[in-house]
Request: fold
Amino acid sequence: MSVAFTKENDRDGTEANLQDRPISPHPNLVTAEGHAMLEAALEVARAAVHEARAAGEDGTGLALARAARDFRYFSARQADAEIVPPPPADGRVHFGSRVTFDRDDGRRQTFRIVGEDEAEPAKGTISYVSPVARALVGKVVGDVAVVAGGEVEIIAIG
Reply:
């Protein structure tokens, strides 16, 4: 194949060519815990970059490419993070609130509304931009919200 049809960085095709992790267009709201998580992830990525370089990687290796990609992502996320103070105790659902609700299928669920990078539904946290969180913010105990075509009733807010 003619070099006219290759990219400058294609050399022999052995280079790691990883796409950057996508960065959300939403404001990067975080809890204090989420901010600490971003700082820790940034340090892990920084250490991984140093470790890959110390192992002799020159920019073409997969370990260095992954570490550098993570470093760029967490640097950007940490730089634009907006720490949101704990929610006010006004009886309404806010960013940072822990909300318990009953679904119309009989399930009871509890989630804390947090930033995108700290959300782990399996561990009881959801992103403030998720449909569930958007439906619940501003509501009070006893309110009903529509989530995924079904109704949920708020049982507790903490």
In short: Residues 1-15 have pLDDT under 50 and may be disordered. The radius of gyration is 21 Å. Strands lie at 29-30, 82-83, 98-103, 108-114, 125-127, 144-147, 150-157. Residues 98-157 form a domain with the Chitinase A; domain 3 fold (CATH 3.10.50.30).
